[in-house]
Amino acid sequence: MAFSGVPGLALHHPARGQRIAAFFVVIASFLGEYAVITLLNGSTGAVYQIDWPLPFGPALLSVDQLSIIFLLPLFLVAGCVSVYSVAYWPARKHSSAGKLTLFLGIFAAAMVIVVMARNSVLFIMAWEVMALSAYFLLTAEQQSAEVQRVGTVYLIATHTGTMALLAMFSLLRGTIGTFEFPLSHSLSPSVPVASVIIITALIGFGGKAGLMPLHFWMPGAHANAPSHVSAMMSGVMLKMGVYGILRTLSFFDALPVWVGWLILLLGAWSAINGIALAAGQRDLKRLLACSSIENVGIIFIGIGLALVGMQLQAPYLVVCGLFGAFIHIINHGLFKSLLFLGSGVLIHAVGTREIDRMGGLARRMPITSPLFLVGSLAICGLPPLNGFVGELFLYVGAITDGIVAPLPLAALVAPVLALVGGLAVITFVKLYGIIFLGVPRSVEAAHGHEATPAMTVPMVLLAAGCLVAGLAPVLLVRLVTPAVALYGDLAAPVIAKVTSLVPIVPLTIANILLVSLFLVIGTAYLLRLRRLPRSRGATWGCGYLEPTARMQYTGTSFSEMAINVLGAIVAPNRRKPRLAAAFPPAGTRFQYTVTETVLDRILTPIFEVVGLAFSYLRRVQHGQLHIYVLYIFATLCVLMFWRN
Amino acid sequence: MILLADQLLVLVMLINLVMLGTSRLIFSIRAVAVQGVILGILPGLIHPFSGHLAGITVGIILAKGIIIPYLISDAVRKAHIRREVEPFLGYVPTLLLGAVFTALSFAFAEQLPLAPEHKELLFVPASIATLLTGFLVLTTRRKAISQVIGYLVMENGIFVFGLLLSEAMPVMVEAGALLDLLVGIFVMGIVINHISREFSSLDTSRLRTLKEE
Question: Do B138 and A626 touch (CB under 8 A)?
Answer without folding.
Answer: yes
